[in-house]
Amino acid sequence: ILLLIDFGLVWFAAYRWVRALKVISYEWEKLALAFLFALAIKSLILFFWVRLGVRPTAYIQLGSSVLVLVLALLFISNPNAEEVVFSYQKEGLVWITWSVVGVLFIFSMVNAWFFPITESDAIWYHIRGMSFFHEVRFDSDWVVPQLKQYPPFIPLLFAYLIAFDTEFLKLFFPLLYLCLNIIFFSRVLLLTENKKLACLFTMVLATTPYFWWHGVLPFLDLTTTVFYSTGALYWYFWIKNISTEITEENCYAAISGFLLGLAAWTRIEFLLYDLVPVFLTLYAFSRHPGNNEKLKSLKLFFSGLLFLPTVWFLNLMTFDMALWSQMKIVGGV
Questions:
Q1: Has residue 328 got a pLDDT over 60?
Q2: Among 11, 264, 272, 309, which is most exposed with the fewest C-beta within 10 angstroms?
Q3: pLDDT value at position 118?
Q4: Distances (CA, A) of 257 to 19, 150, 188, 307
Q5: Residue 331 gets which letter from DSSP?
Q6: Residue 130, Cα to own-chain centre: how many angstroms?
Q7: pTM attached to this predicted model
Q8: Which has more confidence, 31 or 118?
Q9: CB under 8 Å, gap of 24 or more: what pairs does 75-82 form?
């Protein structure tokens, strides 16, 4: 119960921030995006508690979550954004699509609930999570050097659940699977204004065996896929609307940059993959020279992209080993 209350507080705070951005039109998309941001906020809270040498017990986390919610209520406005409504075409196909997604999601949840962590890589992430919580350090001797330097997002999630004595450590991964499908459906629907196309493409994505199978595996692959894919989707809407209203540009830039940074917060080599949208962004802005107002969205994009990886690289510099050795090892998994 405490876990649900704690995460619910952070989720609601993230939801208020998503509503304040005024560019997310669908309620279900706001909830899915807020869920991703809530995971990021929880990982940052845990990171800084461990960095300060404080064991992130359940009650300390609950207090931190209350503080996050209070700050969100005080400093984030809650606008009454209007939801985009399209004609009720192909409602039967919508029900079929989300019934299929729902069944696959339920199978994933049952699998995650019933089966313990047995995968070799996941066991190491579990060990790192236990080290974060019990040893309150990032450079534990329990963990091999190659893995101890890898970004902390998944182990921090494990540490979060361990703090609340939760035995079912894989439950977040089916939820990530569901969130990506919701956001993908919403973005395709907004782009095409055609429910048939949105349903068909979502069905293809949701029923891809390799993608769905990862929905029950506590690996880095699915998590990074969700963050990078959603970041790329919002990045596309930013670049597509580069000549539209400045406020809308800034919101899309902040969302996409932060999500792409979250991908690197999970797998650091995704900083290299982030170079693709970075170079395309610079090219797009080079075609609109002399507009200083546009530079704010560019600054928001790069700030969000680099914040989390920078935090982790600064943390790596405190490890008891040469920086060059860190750089050679960190991408080896």
A1: no
A2: 272
A3: 66
A4: 18, 21, 20, 9
A5: T
A6: 22
A7: 0.90
A8: 31
A9: 76/16, 76/17, 76/20, 77/20, 78/16, 78/19, 78/20, 79/19, 79/20, 79/22, 81/19, 81/22, 81/24, 81/25, 82/25
Please state, in angstroms and rounded to a whole number, the distance separating the CA atoms of residues 310 and 322.
18
Q: Are 239 and 284 in contact (CB under 8 A)?
A: yes
Report the pLDDT value the prediction gives residue 11, as an integer from 0 to 100.
95
CB-CB contact of 132 with 175 (8 Å): no
Residue 309 tokens, joined: 């990886």
User: What is the DSSP code (8-state) at residue 77?
Assistant: -
Q: Mean pLDDT check: name the lowest of 35-49, 81-95, 144-158.
A: 81-95
Please choose, from the candidates 105, 83, 95, the residue with its C-alpha nearest in 3D space to the C-alpha of residue 196: 95
Gap between the Cα atoms of 19 and 23, Å rounded:
8
Dihedral, CA atoms, 21, 27, 28, 32, nearest 10 degrees?
Answer: 20
Residue 66 token pair: 């209350």
Task: Give the Å distances, CA to CA, from 116 to 2, 58, 113, 167, 259.
Answer: 22, 22, 8, 8, 29
d(CA 109, CA 309): 30
DSSP 141: T
Confidence check: pLDDT of 221 > 60? yes
Query: Given this model, what pLDDT does residue 242 score?
Result: 75
Average pLDDT score over the chain: 85
